[in-house]
C-alpha cells in the first residue's frame, strides 16, 4: 500500500476519506441523536434524482445532487414538522420519486457513459481535485456551524421543549440539521455510494455513543472511528482488489460486531 501513495488518485482517496469521515462523524451524531436515520436514508436515495438531472443538463454531479438533496431535506423538514402522523408515507414517496426521476433522466441523457455502480456503491479512487475542494469547503462550513451554535443544537437535539422555552427557534435548527445531513450524504456517496451511505453515518456513531458522555465527544470519537474504518477499508480494497465502498462498510460492521462482543455493560 505504501508504494501506492505516490499516485495522485490514491492521495485524493485518502484525503477524501478523511474529510468525509469528519463530516459523517459530526452529522451522523446529530442524525442518530435526533432520530433522523430514516430521513437521512430517504435523502440519500432521493439525491439520485439530482445525479440524473446533473448528467442530463451537463452540470457537475456534486452540484446537481446537492441542490436536489437540499430540496428533499427542506421538503422532509416541512412534512416532519407539519404532517408528522404520515411522515413514513411521505418519505417513502419522496424516496421512490427521487430515484425514478434520476433513472428517467439517465435514460434520456444522450451518449451517457458513466458507470452507475460508482454512485450506487461508491468510487473513492475516482475522486478529483474539484471533489476535494467541495468536500473541504463543506467540512469547514459544518465545523463552523456546529462550533458557533453548539449549545442551541445540543438543546434542540436532546430536549426540544426546553429549547423552545429558552427562545431557540427549534424548527430552524431542525431544518438546518437536515440540510447539513443532505450535504454530508452527497459527499459520502462518492466514498461508499448511496446504497451504503447510511451505514457510514450510523455504525461509527453507535460505537462512539457507547464510549462518550457528551455530544461533542461523540462527534470527535465517531470521526476518528470513521477515519479508521475508511482507511482500513481502502487498504483491504487495494490489497484484495475489491470495491472500496463495500470494503469500508464491511470493515465498519466487523469492528462493530467485535465491539458488541467484547464491550462491558
Description of the structure:
- By secondary structure, the chain is mainly α.
- It has a single domain, classed as ABC transporter involved in vitamin B12 uptake, BtuC, CATH 1.10.3470.
- It is 79% helix and 0% strand.
- The protein is built from 14 helices and no strands.
- Helix 1 packs parallel to helix 7 (129-148), helix 1 runs antiparallel to helix 10 and helix 13 crosses helix 14 (244-262).
- The longest helix has 26 residues, at 8-33.
- The chain is globular.
- The N and C termini lie far apart (37 Å).
Give descriptors for this structure.
single chain; 265 residues; mainly alpha; ABC transporter involved in vitamin B12 uptake, BtuC; globular
Q: Label the overall shape.
A: globular
Portion in strands: under 5%
Global Rg: 18 Å
CATH homologous superfamily classification: ABC transporter involved in vitamin B12 uptake, BtuC
Show the helix and strand layout.
Blueprint: H1 8-33, H2 37-46, H3 48-57, H4 61-82, H5 87-108, H6 117-120, H7 129-148, H8 150-158, H9 160-165, H10 170-192, H11 197-200, H12 203-211, H13 215-240, H14 244-262
Amino acid at each position: 500500500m505504501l508504494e501506492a501513495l505516490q499516485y495522485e488518485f490514491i492521495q485524493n482517496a485518502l484525503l477524501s476519506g478523511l474529510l468525509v469521515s469528519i463530516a459523517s462523524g459530526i452529522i451522523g451524531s446529530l442524525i442518530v441523536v435526533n432520530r433522523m436515520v430514516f430521513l437521512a436514508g430517504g435523502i440519500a436515495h432521493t439525491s439520485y434524482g439530482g445525479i440524473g438531472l446533473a448528467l442530463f443538463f451537463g452540470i457537475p454531479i456534486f452540484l446537481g445532487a446537492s441542490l436536489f438533496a437540499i430540496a428533499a431535506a427542506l421538503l422532509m423538514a416541512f412534512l416532519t414538522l407539519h404532517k408528522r402522523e404520515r411522515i413514513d408515507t411521505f418519505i417513502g414517496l419522496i424516496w421512490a420519486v427521487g430515484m425514478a426521476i434520476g433513472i428517467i433522466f439517465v435514460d434520456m441523457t444522450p451518449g451517457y457513459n458513466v458507470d452507475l455502480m460508482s454512485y450506487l456503491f461508491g468510487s473513492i479512487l475516482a475522486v478529483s481535485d474539484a471533489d476535494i475542494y467541495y468536500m473541504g469547503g463543506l467540512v469547514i462550513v459544518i465545523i463552523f456551524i456546529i462550533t458557533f451554535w453548539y449549545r442551541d443544537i445540543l438543546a434542540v437535539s436532546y430536549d426540544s421543549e426546553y429549547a423552545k422555552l429558552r427562545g431557540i427557534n427549534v424548527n430552524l435548527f431542525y431544518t438546518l440539521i437536515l440540510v447539513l445531513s443532505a450535504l454530508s450524504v452527497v459527499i459520502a456517496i462518492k466514498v461508499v455510494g448511496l446504497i451504503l451511505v447510511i451505514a457510514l453515518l450510523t455504525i461509527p456513531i453507535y460505537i462512539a455513543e457507547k464510549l462518550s458522555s457528551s455530544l461533542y465527544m461523540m462527534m470527535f470519537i465517531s470521526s476518528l472511528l470513521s477515519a479508521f474504518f475508511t482507511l482500513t477499508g481502502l487498504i483491504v480494497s487495494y490489497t484484495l482488489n475489491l470495491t472500496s465502498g463495500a470494503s469500508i462498510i464491511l470493515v465498519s460492521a466487523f469492528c462493530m460486531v467485535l465491539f458488541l462482543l467484547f464491550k462491558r455493560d
